[in-house]
Amino acid sequence: MACGNPILLDFLHRWWEDAREHGYKKATALKRAHDSMRACPVAFSHPSEAQQLSGIGPAIVERLTRAYEAYCREHDLPAPVRPRGAKRRANADAIDAHNADLLEQAAQPKKRKSSTRTYVPQMRSAPYAILLALYDAERAAPDGRAPGLLKQHIINAAQPLCDVSFDAPENNRSFYTGWSSMKTLVGRNLVYPKGHPPRYFLTESGTEVADGIQEARKRAEALDGGLAPPPPPPEAPAAAPAGSVRRPARNARDLDSHRDFGGLDDRSEAEKEKYADMQANRRRLQLLYSGASTQYGVALPTHTAADLAAIDREVEQVRQRSLNGGRAPPAGGVGPPPAASAAAPARTRSNSAITATEPAPVFAQFEPAVLRPGEYTVELILDNREVRSKTDREYLQNNLVTAGVTPTTRPLQVGDALWVARSGNREFVLDYIVERKRLDDLISSIKDGRFQEQKFRLTKSGIPNVIYIIESFSLGGDGTYMTEAIETAISSTQVVNGFFVKRTAKLDDTIRYLARMTKMLRGAYLGKELHIIPADLVESRSYAHLREHLKTTYPGKDFYLGYDMFSSLVNKSGSTTLRDVFLKMLMCVRGMSAERALEVQRSFATPAALVEAFVNCGDDAERDNLVLEACQNAIARRKISGVVSKKVKEVWWGVA
Questions:
Q1: What spatial distance separates the first Cα and last Cα of the chain, rounded to whole Å?
Q2: pLDDT by residue (tens digit) across 510-542?
Q3: Is the bond into 197 cis (omega within 30 degrees of 0)?
Q4: C-alpha distances in Å from residue 134, one per residue of 120, 167, 273, 451
Q5: Which helix (H) or strand (E) holds 130?
Q6: Distances (CA, A) of 382 to 32, 321, 408
Q7: Closest by alpha carbon to 156, among 167, 145, 147?
Q8: Are the CB atoms for 525 and 378 separated by under 8 Å?
Q9: Nearest-5° Cα angle at 435, 434 to 441
């Protein structure tokens, strides 16, 4: 049935598309109006007649009238005239007849197509696990008779076969658990209950479906040989085999590797060129913006002409290496940038806290203590504040135990989970740490600034492999207008910070990922010697320099820090420096963002320096413009306005 008013329908379609793209609430109302207009075959002589349709009210009619009048003026058409008298009654009768037809069609029950397909549940779903649990119990009966299982017995047997929890819903807004699917199985005549309390049995149809599932399991095990492929060691450059966990990049330079994209030798020249350009652009962004975020305590790099030339040379080197399949450039190619170390001292995550103005300290030579293979075990440490809900605080721990990993819970100073090498009463932090964010918590942390502060502390911890887990969650109104901010935050976490971002659909997926990572790390560290960093060499200000010194002095050896020393090093209050406190003080001034505070700190390193500058000013007018003039060469988003400069003077001049 053709629409009788294509011009009005086009208006509604454009308005609806625009509202949907911007996430406006009125998109739903416009969609109803659009569908109602599309279904109406009656032609209107004036847009006001559309008010008789379902879903179109006075506001939409008024907007349609203005749009149609503008359309007529633009195309030299006569202006629409509101119908009166008999013509208006005739149109109203036609619309009433159309509405009556729609109501009659809606009242008629739709015939449901009968399906002859046999119901087969999805692999590792709750119905799949329940059928297998009943099937295994039936086959295990000594006399071959189905014994029937109680609810709790089915849950205990089915949970290891299922990815959905039988005890708790997926999120706080849902009431359905894996056990809710029992109603589906009973409704499809695959399972039937009997007795009180009910015991559950397979029907003949249920036994046939379970037979098919069991046959499919046997074929899959035969193809896989019944064994999962072994996990790769941490140093292996090849991609992880199926079924294992891909190791995150050890530092930002590993992003230059092509191992995650497959070999380049089988690609065309155009594909190689495209891949090399992508890697070079990524490296350029890392070099230009390394440290240029709003994180506390990171110095903003100043790029002179020599610095930019050094960056260009290093980027070209990355491009050439990518073209050669990850190998060094050929003879006569691009050489290493001689000024790269001076131009950008904060290039990787392991040394991103080193600023250009700090001199490298000198460390005494020492013979590191060594943990031999077999003298330690790899254990998962879980933050005790990681809970599913206030009333279900043990959900993560219990499900990790079910997955074969027994975690140790304690309050962590940074991150939500990490792995340690445990030898007796001693623990040493390994090279992997996890930060877990549910989507609603990620939005909250972006709004209140915790997102940047937590990423800075993760970088400052010195652990090279940071895994950032983001769990999906059903969002309300925030989900529409925060989508762009979420994607930007995830991209910056990957590119600028160099973290490995893992997206999971729900908490159960996160638990399985942590269990797989624990098993993979236990295999990776099997037979590996661990070298221990002496506690007396570790200081907060020089820790990043110490790791670089150890990497240079003892090539090929990995060094690890004791857990107690690590906790004190990353303690939120214990590791706070004067620089960090000064930045937070500056940001208390209204209108002073983190980037602007960093720019002010470039000119005034300490509170005393700022107060002294105010004292040396001749009059109040000079003090009002002191911060403004000191930051006048900053880029646009870091420039200090006259109003903010005056507010800084009002706050700090009272101290003098």
A1: 81
A2: 999 999 999 999 999 888 889 888 877 777 777
A3: yes
A4: 15, 18, 57, 47
A5: helix 126-140
A6: 49, 40, 6
A7: 167
A8: yes
A9: 155
Number of H helices, E strands in the chain: 25, 11
Ranges of residues in the chain whose predicted pLDDT is under 50: 226-266, 291-301, 327-358, 656
Q: Residue 199: beta bridge partners?
A: 194
DSSP state of 149: B
3-state secondary structure of 532: strand
Structure-token pair, residue 195: 């007795």
Residue whose token pair is 């530092």 = 251
Query: b/e map of 316-325 (b: 16 or more CB within 10 Å)?
Result: bbbbbbbbee
**What are the pLDDT digits (tens) for 408-467?**
999 898 899 999 999 988 999 999 999 999 888 888 888 877 888 788 888 888 888 999
Encoded amino acid at 229, one letter: P
pLDDT per residue as tens digits for the range 156-211: 888 888 888 887 776 666 778 888 889 999 998 899 998 888 889 988 888 888 88
> Which residue from 445, 440, 449 is spatially nearest to 473, judged by alpha carbons?
440
Cβ-based neighbours of 397, under 8 Å, separated by 6 or more: 382, 407, 409
Residues 197, 150 contacting (CB under 8 angstroms): yes
The per-residue DSSP string of 377-389 comes to EEEEEEETT--SB
Distance (Å, whole) CA 55 – CA 93: 18
Please provide the size of the chain in residues.
656
**DSSP labels, 259-315:** GGG--STTS-HHHHHHHHHHHHHHHHHHHHHTT-SS-TTPPPPP--HHHHHHHHHHH
Show Cβ contacts of residue 610 under 8 Å, excluding neighbours closer than 6 positions: 600, 604, 652
Report how far residue 450's alpha carbon sits from residue 69's, in angstroms, rounded to the nearest whole number: 52
Q: Give catalytic residues, as residue numbers.
A: 383, 386, 416
Q: Give strand pairing partners of 417.
A: 382, 434
> Which residues, other chains included, contact 24 with Cβ-Cβ below 8 Å and sequence gap of 6+?
none
Say if residues 440 and 282 touch (Cβ distance below 8 Å): no
CA–CA dist 593, 449 (Å, integer): 11
By C-alpha distance, which of 189, 167, 592 is closest to 389? Answer: 167
Residue bearing tokens 């003098």? 656
φ/ψ of residue 539, rounded to 5: -135, 150
Answer positive or negative: Cα dihedral of 421, 427, 430, 433: positive
Across-strand partners of 409?
382
C-alpha distances in Å from residue 208, one per residue of 103, 191, 460: 44, 12, 58
- R_g of the chain, CA atoms, integer Å: 33
Strands (E), 89-213: 191-194, 199-202
Name the pairing type of β-strands 559-562 and 377-383. unpaired
- Write out the two tokens for 521: 């790390």
DSSP states of 490-528: HHHHHHTS-PEEEEESSHHHHHHHHHHHHHHHHHHTTT-
